[in-house]
Design a protein that fits this description.
The protein is α+β, with helices and mostly antiparallel strands. It is built from 4 helices and 8 strands, in the order αβαββββαβββα. The strands form 2 sheets. The chain has a 6-stranded antiparallel sheet. The chain has a two-stranded antiparallel sheet with strand order 1-8. The protein has one domain: Yope Regulator, Chain: A (2-Layer Sandwich). The longest helix has 23 residues. It is globular, with a radius of gyration of 19 Å.
């Protein structure tokens, strides 16, 4: 291979690596949850990693501020083309949280749903539906809203 071809290929490779990722395109329409794009968005909010089992992506685990969360891929077809995401976070408070407190939060706050899991730990879930497609900007906005929902739950229910 001659030097000019090698330099051209090296330049193209470098440009491809330096190009902005797909998730940064605000108009990009997503009709399914590409785990790598979801991971990229999650990592823009803090540490996050793919959780895989036998080469299949199961979820993304991350940390944002004072809480940890998991994003589950739902409504998938053969573990790909998932059309729903579920954000999930739970707390281990020093004092028990009552169902009444969580029910009050659920009635006062529109996004997310809180409940006590089987171990009586408070949990919040926040779902995103991608049917028909959403833009990268909308996906990022949903991340922000999910994290705001977790923070609000923490401030209102856990700190109560």
């Amino acid at each position: 291979m001659n030097t000019l071809v090698k330099l051209t290929l090296a330049g193209l490779f470098t440009a491809a690596l330096a190009s902005p990722a797909i998730a940064s395109e605000p108009d990009q329409l997503h009709t399914y949850a590409d785990p790598y794009i979801i991971l990229e968005i999650a990592q823009s909010f803090g540490p996050a990693e793919l959780d895989e089992d036998d080469q299949e992506i199961q979820s993304i685990s991350g940390h944002n501020g004072d809480f940890e969360y998991v994003i589950f891929f739902l409504e998938c077809h053969q573990n790909t083309n998932c059309t729903e995401l579920q954000f999930y976070s739970y707390w281990l408070p020093d004092t028990p949280v009552s169902n009444d407190t969580i029910n009050k939060w659920n009635s006062d706050y529109r996004f997310g749903r809180g409940y006590l899991d089987d171990d009586n730990d408070p949990v919040v879930e926040y779902d995103i539906n991608l049917d028909g497609g959403v833009t990268s900007e909308n996906l990022r906005s949903n991340f922000e809203l999910a994290f705001l929902t977790f923070r609000t739950f923490d401030d209102v229910v856990i700190a109560d």
